[in-house]
Amino acid sequence: SSFAALLRVEPENRYFRHAIAVLASGEKLGYVAPEVARAYFEPLRVAAQPVTCPARRATVADHGTSGVELLLDFSDLGIMPAA
After folding, report:
1. Residue 30 has pLDDT above 80, yes or no
2. C-alpha to C-alpha distance for 69 and 49, rounded to whole angstroms
3. What is the Cα–Cα distance from 10 to 5, expressed in whole angstroms?
4. Is residue 72 classed as helix, strand or coil in its secondary structure?
5. How many angstroms separate the CA atoms of 47 and 6, rounded?
């Protein structure tokens, strides 16, 4: 089943300067992949409103082959990635 995931930048993250946390029901579920986060960090940081996207848990096969836990739909975020 799908749910709404909140995307929140973490500029204070000491491990990854472009960290974007993925939250649902107030709990952190994980982070956007670094190769994607680089393009979305700044647009999310300056967004006027909190940004959410549809999400769903990945299948066992997805996790087993790629380590992916969640599938996030960025197709209608309302922001454009940085070039």
Report:
1. yes
2. 26
3. 15
4. strand
5. 13
Residues facing residue 56 across a β-bridge: 2, 71
pTM of the model: 0.87
Classify 9 as helix, strand or coil.
strand
Q: What is the secondary structure of 20-48 as a DSSP string?
A: EEEEETTEEEEE--HHHHHHHHHHHHT-S
**Which secondary structure element, helix H or strand E, spans residue 2, and what is its range?**
strand 2-9
Identify whether the C-beta of residue 82 lies closer than 8 Å to the C-beta of residue 42.
yes
DSSP 6: E
Contact at 8 Å (CB) between 39 and 54?
no
Residue carrying the six token digits 């799908």:
2
